[in-house]
Amino acid sequence: MNNMHTPLTEMLGIKYPIIMAPMFLVSNTEMLIAAGEAGITGSIPALNFRTIAAFKEGIESVRKATNAPVGVNLIVNKSNPKYKEQLKACIDLKVDYIITSLGSPQEVIEKCKPEGIKVFCDVVDLEYAKKVEDLGADAIIAVNKEAGGHAGPTPAKELVPLLIQNCNIPVISAGGVGTGAQLKEKLDFGACGISMGSPFIATNESGVSDAYKNACVEYGAKDIVMTTKLSGTPCTVINTPYVEAIGTKQSAFESLLNKNKKLKKFMKMLTFYKGMKMIEKAAFSATYKTVWCAGPSIEYTTEIRSVKDIVNDLIEQYKKANQEVTS
Hints:
single chain; 327 residues; alpha/beta; TIM Barrel; 2 domains; eight-stranded parallel beta barrel; two-stranded antiparallel sheet; 43% helix
């Protein structure tokens, strides 16, 4: 069945039901523009901009370059001290949609719905999905076990149908897509679209270092490991020699501090800050301290290409997979 016309394409007015996932430090305005020109939509973490002025300027520059919808990812818990002003900026800019992560989306939904801004919420289980649906989310992003960054514990083949059966809003699958056949698989599960990030790291438009891009070409799914050292929340990274050396678990002392009720919030913010600085240094410069975030779908990255080429190949592969089923 050809199911490329979905609630996601209708909501956002895009040709293909694909969101270029927001990737910390990787996503940039050039990638957003390229995504729009390729018939999909790009989203970017608000935290990728150092100041609110830079954030506004960046989104406005994308608006001038393309009519495609633009999305912004907001971290909505206390690890993000800029959350309130980022939300206000999103409303002032009238971005097309917001993806909420790591906290309650209640305020985002309450303030954005009257402005016509769609709100999609990252979820990893049914309990949280029901909560955000009740709050008025426009769609759920089912972050599955194959996702890059903060992955969920459940495979897409279980999580997506579970959410569809029990929720009444569209479900977008996040994770595990690097080919057109995998895109078809997620849509066949009932997802209205996908959120796909890691295959876009090694692109011409990406601003990260060549070393990071080449790592996505050279390493594969078997080289992806989960670490709690970066943000306190399990996060996927490439298992470089440096990651092997420092390990992937917090020390006993860090774990103890994280369990202390008075220190827990402070420690989470400190861990997040230190971890993000570590990633930032590795992303843009040559350093032996290589901590590169990526998901298992880098398995299908064989060279550095343009965003448009990746999307075109994905759609051609999808069409071929469809023909094989119907012929």
